[in-house]
């Protein structure tokens, strides 16, 4: 008997804390807390096999969202930096996604409430683990985006991170790629993100931008700059001639976007520039 699989077993004997089930050669415990209805001796029952907190093979009548070889979205229940993240698969015990399968940077790990598309596997030590779906699995699941998807808003979960960007699986089943130039910060694995389609490729996948459209970003960028000014008492050592790298580091936006937003604030008589500094216009 192998953890991670559904099996139909026979009720062999009752004990004070549950029943022992058998496949004819091995036995496994079905605890009373894992029963969904009364059982009778010699009855056949379909159960899921997993390891309890002591590492012992046991059974549950609860049907998990995923098994060995089947996939689904499962929610992150806990994050343990030295081990990995635990996901809720629909039974009483959460299952580990190993640190070996997660990004090197902890800040890119999923957080509680994020979702991962997973299956189950058993490692060399016999431990039951959750494993992330490969890119091949996700592409088999995906649908091709039509050309009409261009410039449409899109929402999806990040399922893979690479050096050049991140892949998402959208609500409607598109595979999307977010290039590093099309985001203000790197999304974490399992994060739900929203953006827009900026390209539909021949294979039906899409390129996605998490950056707001220009007319949307003006208000957002201007508000960010103004709030930063307020946090500094109304003055900052940044202006329209500041170094682009300094602007990028501080505001996570390009110099062109910074200048547009600053111009909007100046036109609205919210700020003014003087001697390489920008100041809030004080109301009289």
From TrEMBL:
SMART domains (alphabetical): S1
Family to which this protein belongs: Belongs to the CvfB family.
Gene3D superfamilies xref list: Nucleic acid-binding proteins, Winged helix-like DNA-binding domain superfamily/Winged helix DNA-binding domain
Residues in S1 motif domain copies: 151-211
Entry protein name: S1 motif domain-containing protein
GO molecular function, one term: nucleic acid binding
One Pfam family per UniProt: S1_2
InterPro entries to which the protein is assigned, alphabetical: CvfB_fam (IPR014464), CvfB_S1_2nd (IPR048588), CvfB_S1_3rd (IPR048587), CvfB_S1_st (IPR039566), CvfB_WH (IPR040764), NA-bd_OB-fold (IPR012340), S1_domain (IPR003029), WH-like_DNA-bd_sf (IPR036388)
């Amino acid at each position: 008997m192998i953890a991670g699989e559904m099996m139909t077993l026979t009720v062999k004997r009752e004990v004070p804390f549950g029943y022992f089930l058998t496949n004819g050669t091995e036995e496994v415990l079905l605890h009373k807390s894992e029963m969904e209805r009364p059982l009778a001796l010699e009855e056949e029952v379909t159960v899921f096999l997993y390891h309890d907190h002591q590492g012992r093979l046991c059974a549950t009548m609860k049907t998990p969202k995923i098994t060995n070889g089947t996939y689904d979205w499962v929610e992150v229940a806990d994050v343990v930096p030295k081990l990995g993240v635990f996901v809720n698969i629909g039974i009483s015990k959460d299952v580990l996604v190993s640190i070996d399968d997660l990004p090197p940077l902890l800040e890119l790990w999923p957080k509680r409430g994020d979702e991962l598309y997973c299956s189950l596997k058993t490692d060399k030590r016999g431990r039951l683990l959750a494993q992330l779906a490969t890119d091949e699995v996700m592409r088999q699941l995906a649908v091709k985006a039509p050309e009409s998807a261009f410039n449409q808003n899109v929402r999806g979960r990040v399922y893979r991170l690479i050096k050049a960007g991140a892949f998402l699986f959208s609500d409607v089943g598109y595979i999307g790629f977010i290039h590093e130039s099309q985001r203000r910060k790197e999304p974490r694995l399992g994060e739900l993100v929203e953006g827009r389609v900026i390209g539909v490729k021949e294979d039906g996948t899409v390129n996605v931008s998490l950056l707001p459209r220009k007319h949307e970003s003006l208000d957002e960028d201007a508000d960010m700059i103004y709030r930063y000014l307020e946090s500094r008492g109304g003055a900052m050592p940044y202006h329209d001639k500041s170094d682009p790298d300094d602007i990028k580091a501080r505001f996570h936006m390009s110099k062109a976007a910074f200048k547009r937003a600053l111009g909007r604030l100046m036109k609205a008589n919210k700020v003014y520039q003087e001697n390489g500094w920008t100041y809030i216009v004080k109301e009289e």
